[in-house]
Predict the 3D structure of the following.
Amino acid sequence: MNKTISISNPNKVQSLIVQPYGGGDKIGGVLDLSIFTTATNISVSNIDIEELGELPLNLISFNGSFNKITNITSAFSITESVRNFNLKNNKLTTVDINNILTAFEDNDYDTPLPDDSIIDISQFGNAVPDSTGISKIQTLNSEGWVVKYNPGEYVLSTNAKSVSEGGQSLTIDINRTISDIPDGATVPYVISGVQADDFSLDGFDGDSPSNLQGSFTITDNTDSATFSFATDVGVDKYLEGETFTMTIHQLTQIDSSNLSDGTYTITVQGESVTFVVANGSVITDISALSIYVPADPTSTITITDTAVSPDTDITDIQLTGTSHSISVPIVDKTIVPYDLTVDATQSEGSSFNITLAPTIGTTVANGTTVPYTISQIQGNDIAEDLTGEFTLQDNVGQITITVLADENANENETMILTLDDYPTVNVSVRLFDT
């Protein structure tokens, strides 16, 4: 059983503070949560904390999305029992990331980690791992951890844990993580996991809803995009829920082995930047050029040799980069499209009907077929096949099932009929042996 502790009043946490020297709504010293040895989730809000100390023994998640932590101490301790770490905050730094990763790296795990062991440091605002942090991440990955982090100079974030069809809109924020840039920079994004017609009529805030692509335009180092999702309509639109994923791709390296030393220009979506190949460099790091591209960079980038006259376009260049994405589940609010009804429980030698009809108030075209499968019984228990289909006429489809007598007495069974395309729609019929 999960146990949650919520700390919302700064005046009530003095006993948790080591070396307190502050007061009011800003507490000084190290917040030591290790006394909560049975807590599995802790939420801290309305407190400015200057340092975070040891975590509880059984903690799987620390949600500090509303508090302000400004330092993770180098002595930060994470017990070996922690298997899911997600610390959300908007003030942490690269040093804080390194201290957190070090705390995990210092542990000696005697048993293999479960597949879902996650260290999520992807929503630390402006914090981006440096080379030291990347090395630690690689080590932790080799030990079985899944480390989620922001690999580039922009980070995507949202306050939504999920959104519902026909409900509140989903807003995705993008923030610059490294340094200030002039207003007007564009960052293209690609959306996956959903279809264009999943969005409400005015719910797509991008450039091309049919292609599920769009772009941010950065102002004051930030921008946002808002999406609304329509409730599925019609029996052909019943879905089991989807996950909205937005991805941005940064171009970081060019294989320049077939480029002569000189100056080159890269043009992406009408924007041009230059880079230099010197001393026969094979791999040229261009991450500082801040080039963001759609999912397939080779189809959208032109590299031009500006050292020759006239300028010459160059193709067949190997490009590599990093991707950063954010995913939000969409809760399906669609009513189950069909309903099944059946006569009372049956005995061997009798027949009964199963009726199918739409449940969402729409008219289904005559002749519409809905396949089904019967399970939990044998083929010789009924006269009909175990698979078949309803054919609807005037919004109703009906089949007749005849129960056959068998030689084994006292073997009552339960027949289950399930719609193939809608596995949550089924009906059970109890068959009594006579």
Summary: Residues 17-25, 202-208 have pLDDT under 50 and may be disordered. The chain has two helices and 32 strands.
